[in-house]
Amino acid sequence: MKTFVTWLSVSAAAGLVLSGCSKKSDAVANNASGAAVSSASVTSGGSATTGPIDLKLKWQAGKRYDMKVDVDQTTDVKTPNGPNHSEIKVTQNFHYSPLKDLDNGGHEVEMDFDNQSLDVFQNDKDVLSYDSTQKKSTPPAGPSAAVAAVMGAMLGVPLDYTFAANGALEKIDGVDALTNRINAALPDQRQQMSLQQLFDDDTLKQYGTFSEALPDHPVNVGDSWSSSHDINNPAGVLTVDSTYTFKDREQHNGYDCVHLLLNGNIKTKTASAATIGAVVKIGKGAINGEAWFAPDLGMVVDLKNDQDLTLNITTRTMNLTENMKVKMETSLLSVSP
Fold first, then answer.
1. What sign has the CA pseudo-torsion 270, 229, 255, 95?
2. Mean pLDDT score across all residues of the chain
3. Quick one: pLDDT band at residue 203, thresholds 50, 70, 90?
4. Which residues fall within 8 angstroms of residue 80, CB to CB, at 6 or more apart?
């Protein structure tokens, strides 16, 4: 499961295109050539705007936002025993339910996991499979048992996110209840550790940081802005640097959207072998993607990105190079009522 843990920590940091972490975005209101953009920018696709657009989340109390994340990761590494190819497919369905607007301009939003699935293939052989929508029981001694226990225990446990007026995440309530439920479902601490990044604080925070990489001022077509943040990883600390560009306005999935492009990179800030017994450093960490944000709705409608990573791994007995490619899509399925 160490490959899965590596994927999870990287994609949680960089996969959600509009997610930030701890550092405020550094906005740059220039077009690609560095010149100021006119406030009367005309967009492609037949849409137009007479001025800059404010890209802000608009949590509406009483509504439900159903979301879906699909991840497909492939990993190739040459070992002394020959090449090793693995593939991990993950799907998560979850929803946000804004509970109330706070007096200070912030918001209280509940998040629940609705269903989850995970498939792991090793050299094209299916070695682990779990799908919470399937009612068949998981063999207690099989390789999927621990995953089923944790991913199943995560379902239906409400987590309350409190946001400040500027969208920054202030706190999460309900983590203790979630942890207690997981402890009861999977008492084995060693197995828990192997799956901890499914539900630890750093991972759960990623579901509440949509707004932190959005620009802190209205933007026009052609504007770009940047963000940088660190994320804890079993192998140390990663730094994710991203640049976003307002490409145009277009219809997407039934919404009038701002179309954003993403370019960025992931790099190792500090490396440690304390947790996994190996030193892992990122030699290459490219991120490319695009996102669609509906200003009227105040929500991300769709976002896609590709990550192309090269990991240099050093153990006590060998040096390995792991090539990893990750495709991720996060979609807004529906808003109700």
1. positive
2. 83
3. confident
4. 318
